[in-house]
Amino acid sequence: MDLSPVWSLLGPLAVLYAIAVILLILYALTGVGTMNVKEEKYLKLHIPFGKYLVEFILWVFNPFEKFCRRFGITPNMLTLAGTALAGVAAVFYAKGRFIPAAWALAFGGIFDTIDGHLARRFGQDSRGGAFLDSTLDRYTEGVIFIGIATYYRESVFFLAALTALVGSMLVSYSKARGEGLGLDFKGGFLKRSERVFYLFLISAFTPIADLLRHRWPGLPPEFLFKVNLIFFAAATNLTAFYRIYNIHKTLDRGQRP
Question: Which of 78, 205, 214, 248 has a Cα at 20 to 30 A from 34?
Answer without folding.
Answer: 78
